Amino acid sequence: MAKTHDASQVAFFERDASELMGGVTYIPGFIAPKEADELLAAYLRLDWRQHIYRVTGKAPRLYVWMGVPYISPNLVSKTVTTEWTAEAKRIKDRVEQVTGCTFDSLNMNRYRHNRDSIGWHSDSEAEGRWDFPIASVSLGAVRRFQWKRKSDDATDSQAVEHGSLFIMPAGFQRDYQHRLPKQEKSCGERINLTFRRMLV
User: Fold this and answer.
1) Among the four residues 41, 96, 144, 184, which has the most C-beta atoms within 10 Å?
2) Which residues contact 30 (CB under 8 A, 6 or more apart)?
3) For the stretch 78-87, what's the b/e string if a residue is b when 16 or more beta carbons lie within 10 angstroms of its beta carbon?
4) Is residue 64 within 8 Å of residue 49, measured between CB atoms?
């Protein structure tokens, strides 16, 4: 039976209000470099797949989804659900310890080079409850993550480093869009782990 969250699970975000726009929290060095290197190598060995969108075609990135099955009407085929790996569970436990929140799903995106990206969007409620935060762990190449307020297009950004943790608070998807843009400078691979809450 799925756990419900209570006031104690969002207290982390109330205690540590960030100076970054939208109340996001950025924690560099969340995972030590040696362990981050080992995790990146392990995740690169997973069976990566590519979304195909009905309108725009192949996504410019790869994915692995773990946890609660997810179906999007925007995709040609359903998202394939992969069993939780030991490495993914280990990082999930650590993120939950730091945030005080319980997550039941993980979306992993693999950006293979500097031209892989994701455009402006808000995650749908089917991808993660809007009354719950999304915690994102970055591994690999440093990329610049951007977000903007829907009401006035005010924009902020953060270079997300190898082993860092970036947290979008509850309600963020309702009020903001975010993206990882293409960049001109060549870079290595980056894997992003986004921990989510799907069920009540």
Assistant:
1) 96
2) 94, 98, 137, 163, 164, 165
3) ebeebeebeb
4) yes
DSSP 56: T
Helix (H, G, I), strand (E, B) or coil at 180: strand
Per the CB < 8 A criterion, the answer to whether 167 and 88 are in contact is no
Q: Is the pLDDT of residue 55 over 70?
A: yes
| Whole-prediction pTM | 0.89
CA distance 132 to 174: 11
The structure tokens listed for 158 are: 């953060």
19 vs 1: CA distance, rounded Å = 37
Which of 169, 178, 68 shows the shortest CA–CA distance to 126?
Answer: 68
Q: Using one digit for the tens of pLDDT, what is the confidence trace for 15-45?
A: 444 579 999 999 999 999 999 999 999 999 9
The Cα–Cα gap between 41 and 25 comes to 26
User: Can you tell me whether residue 146 is helix, strand or coil?
Assistant: strand
Share above pLDDT 90 across residues of the chain, in percent, rounded to a whole number:
84
* Pairing relationship of beta strands 143-149 and 155-160 according to DSSP bridges: antiparallel
Q: Which two tokens stand for residue 13?
A: 């975000």
- Per-residue confidence band for 77, with pLDDT thresholds at 50, 70 and 90: confident
